[in-house]
Amino acid sequence: MAVIGAIGCGKTTLAGLMMRFYDADSGAVLVDGIDVGEYRQRALREKIAIAMQKSELFGVTVGENIAWGLPGADSMSLASAASIAQADSFISSLGNGYDTMVAERGMSLSGGQKQRISVARAVLKPAEIFIFDDSTSALDLKTEADLYRALKESRPDSTKIIIAQRIASVRNSRDPEFYTDCPE
Ligand SMILES: Nc1ncnc2c1ncn2[C@@H]1O[C@H](COP(=O)(O)OP(=O)(O)OP(=O)(O)O)[C@@H](O)[C@H]1O
Ligand SMILES: [Mg+2]
Q1: Strands 48-51 vs 129-133: parallel, antiparallel or unpaired
Q2: For a pLDDT cut of 90, what percent of the chain falls above it?
Q3: For ligand 1, atom 25, which residue shows the shortest CA distance?
Q4: Domain for residue 183, yes or no?
Q5: What is the pLDDT of residues 11-25, one digit of tens each?
C-alpha cells in the first residue's frame, strides 16, 4: 500500500495512529479489523514494524543499531536484514563492518546510509505489517527499487505500507507489468 501526499498532510500522523503513539480524537483506527485501542500495546508493536521518518541511531555499533528491532538477533539475521535494506555492501566497507561504532545520532553516516540502517532495523523484526515512513527518500531510484524488490521477495506475505513523496518511489516498488497499463 502506498501513501503519497504533500508535506504536512498527515502521513506520519497516520503511521503514529496505527502504532498508537497517540489516540484518535474521533473515529477509530482498525488494524486487522480491531480497534488499535483494544490491542495490548505489546501485541500491536509486535505485529507492526516501522522505520520512522526521523529514526534515531545510537552511539553503539552498526550491528547493535540494527538489532535494536530485535535484541539478541544473530549475525545471520542481521546480515539478511542489511541485505534487504541494500546496506550490506557499505557496512562491509566500513572499518570494522558490523562492529563499527556509529557516532551519536548517526552523525558519522550519510543520510542514505542512516535510512538503510533504519530499514534494516525494521525488516529484522518478524512483523506482519511494515511501515516505511519516507524511509528511502535519500536513496537513488535504483537502490530504492532494489530495496523494495528485495523486501517483496523476502517478506512476501507481509503487508507493506510505503509512505513517500515521490510517486516514483512506490511505482518502482511494483512489477513493471503491474503498472504499465495504469494511467498516470
Ligand atoms: N506533535 C505535533 N503536534 C502538533 N501538530 C503536529 C505534530 N506533528 C505534526 N503536526 C502537524 O500535523 C500535520 C501533519 O503532520 P505529519 O507529520 O503527519 O505530516 P506528513 O504528511 O508526514 O509530512 P512530511 O511529508 O513532511 O513528513 C502538520 O500540519 C503538522 O504541522
Ligand atoms: Mg511525515
Answers
A1: parallel
A2: 75
A3: 7
A4: no
A5: 999 999 999 999 999
